[in-house]
Amino acid sequence: MAAVNTLVLASGNSGKLREFNQLLSPLGFDVRPQADFGVTEVEETGLTFVENALLKAREASRVSGLPALADDSGLEVDALNGAPGIYSARYGGEPRSDEKNNQTLLTALSDYAEGQRSGRYWCVLVYLRHPKDPVPVIVQRSWEGEILAHPRGKEGFGYDPLFGYLIRV
Prior knowledge:
Helix content: 10-25%
Radius of gyration: 17 Å
Mean pLDDT: 92
Binding site for Mg(2+): 43, 72
Structural class: alpha/beta
Number of helices: 3
Protein name: dITP/XTP pyrophosphatase
Subunit structure: Homodimer.
Binding site for substrate: 11-16, 73, 157-160
Shape: elongated
Number of strands: 6
Strand content: 25-35%
EC number: 3.6.1.66
Distance between the termini: 42 Å
Order of helices and strands: EHEHEHEEE
């Protein structure tokens, strides 16, 4: 039997935990939530997705003593000058919820017709071997798309029901 490597996920999001375990368990990783180690959410004071992901990963690794994986992601909508951007998770205010964020986005775009709702979904992943890792692995990617006028689908979380990916051939 192959050794299992424990990795702390610097997030309390159960959807992300499920997805990372599905992706990484075949490679021998057991992805555990930061709450299992008493890690609390850090304030996202960075000005970019990369900075915020690094803050989260460093704290999770520092408290847990384990390698950490963190992400920061969100939508950048052209008609809204890049909003919600790094504030995507808290766009709808407190208390935070996907439903509030989605409704706030739809309200902000209510005067924009189909074809005027372009944007992109950004995701940054950071992997740290230890809290002072001088060479973290950083992966950054964006997907172009359009914000839909109405939610669709039953899978996913966050802005997934409103983001229509553009498929390029």
